[in-house]
């Protein structure tokens, strides 16, 4: 988990809107992988997507970072009794966001 955050748990939030200003232009490489739909991407999904779409030659710049903690209640647990501890981290992706750059 992240150690330098002010609060351990976050609200779930909403995934509406488009990535207008931040992270929607190619800055470092020649080619880029851009998101077309809103999603939450875990660090495992991020690693698999990078290994699938990147070639062995050249440099790959990762433009996303997992910074949103997600809490999950155990199965067969009654409702209530507070929010559980964070299980994993996700990245909130909006349409138009550049995920990786290659070049």
List key phrases describing it.
single chain, 103 residues, mainly beta, Aldehyde Oxidoreductase, domain 3, three-stranded antiparallel β-sheet, 1 helix, 6 strands, elongated, plastid, ribonucleoprotein, Ribosomal_uL16_bact-type, 50S ribosomal protein L16, chloroplastic
Basic shape: elongated
Order of helices and strands: EEHEEEE
Which percent range describes the beta-strand content? 25-35%
Flag low-confidence runs: none
Keywords: Chloroplast, Plastid, Ribonucleoprotein, Ribosomal protein
Protein name: 50S ribosomal protein L16, chloroplastic
Organism: Plicosepalus acaciae
GO molecular function: rRNA binding; structural constituent of ribosome
Summarize the structure.
The protein is mostly beta strands and 103 residues long.
What does this structure look like?
- The mean pLDDT is about 85.
- The chain is about 10% helix and about 25% strand.
- It starts with about 30 loop residues before the first strand and ends with a strand.
- It has a domain at about 45-100: Aldehyde Oxidoreductase, domain 3 (Alpha-Beta Complex).
- The protein is mostly beta strands and about 100 residues long.
- The protein contains 1 helix and 6 strands.
- It has one helix at about 45-55, and strands at about 30-35, 40, 60, 70, 85-95, 100.
- The strands form 2 sheets. Strands 1-6-3 form a 3-stranded antiparallel beta sheet, with no helix packed on it.
Helix-strand layout with pairing:
Layout lengths: L30 E4 L4 E4 H11 L6 E3 L5 E4 L14 E8 L4 E5 L1
Antiparallel strand pairs: 1-6, 2-5, 3-6, 4-5
């Amino acid at each position: 988990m992240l150690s330098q955050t002010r609060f351990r748990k976050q609200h779930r939030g909403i995934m509406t809107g488009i990535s207008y200003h931040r992270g929607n232009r190619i800055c470092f490489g020649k080619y880029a992988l851009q998101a077309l739909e809103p999603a939450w991407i875990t660090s495992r999904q991020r690693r698999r997507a990078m290994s699938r779409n990147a070639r062995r030659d050249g440099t790959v710049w990762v433009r996303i970072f997992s910074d949103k903690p997600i809490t999950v209640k155990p199965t067969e647990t009654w409702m209530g009794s507070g929010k559980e501890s964070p299980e994993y981290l996700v990245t909130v992706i909006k349409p138009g966001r550049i995920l990786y750059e290659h070049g």
